[in-house]
Amino acid sequence: MPGALWEATRDLHHACEQHPVGAAMASGTPPVAWYAMWVNSLYVLHSVVDQHMPAVTRRMDQLLMDMATLEGTPKYALPAAQYAASLRSEDSIKGAGYVLLGAHLMGGEVMRRRLSGFPTTHLQWDDRRAALAELTELRDQPHLAQPARACFAALLAIMDAIQERGV
Predict the structure, then answer these.
(1) How much is the pLDDT for 143?
(2) Digit-coded pLDDT (tens) for 57-92
(3) Rounded to whole angstroms, how far apart are CA atoms 29 and 125?
(4) Domain count, the chain
(5) Is residue 22 a contact partner of residue 38, using CB atoms and an 8 Å limit?
(6) Cβ atoms within 10 Å of 145's Cβ, excluding its own
(7) Residue 23 is part of a domain; what is its CATH number?
(8) pTM of the entire structure?
(9) What is the C-alpha to C-alpha distance for residues 151 and 119, in angstroms, rounded to an integer?
(10) Three-class SS string for the chain?
(11) Range of the domain at 60
(12) Biggest CA pair distance of the chain
């Protein structure tokens, strides 16, 4: 059963999947520059969220490994830093944690298989079952709907910035 947050964010979730950057990631064929900026932007978000989430859900170390594998100077999309700076309340952080954890666990599992030749350490889990349990706990908290929607909106803004930047 998807849960209250899934229902409350379904439209934005689908918008992320249909965005040209999201679709390229899901198909496993993003330009390397897009992928690098995406991974770096995720790192910016996780640098705030991870310190407030259970250890089993944290992705900073894995994102750093992926960033080290990608060539060039690490660049992130400006909306990532803007959104990360806005994460000040417990609910905003948990809403972001729900979205990021769900993306890495669910869609990320499909992406990991398709992203041949790309570093995907951040999409691999030592204890997937425990991470899923954390996701289940978050997804049934309807008061996190607006913060989760804000995270999806930020992800769309990040994708827009990546697409505008070009390849």
Answers:
(1) 95
(2) 999 999 999 999 997 777 999 999 999 999 999 999
(3) 23
(4) 1
(5) no
(6) 17
(7) 1.20.910.10
(8) 0.95
(9) 24
(10) CCCHHHHHHHHHHHHHHHCHHHHHHHHCCCCHHHHHHHHHHHHHHHHHHHHHCCHHHCCHHHHHHHHHHCCCCCCCCHHHHHHHHHCCCHHHHHHHHHHHHHHHHHHHHHHHHHCCCCCCHHHCCCCHHHHHHHHHHHHCCHHHHHHHHHHHHHHHHHHHHHHHHCC
(11) 4-165
(12) 42
Identity of the amino acid at 85: A
- Determine the residue type at 163: Q
Residue type, 45: L
Residue 2 CA to residue 152 CA, distance in Å, equals: 17
User: For residue range 142-156, what is the model confidence (pLDDT) as tens digits?
Assistant: 999 999 999 999 999
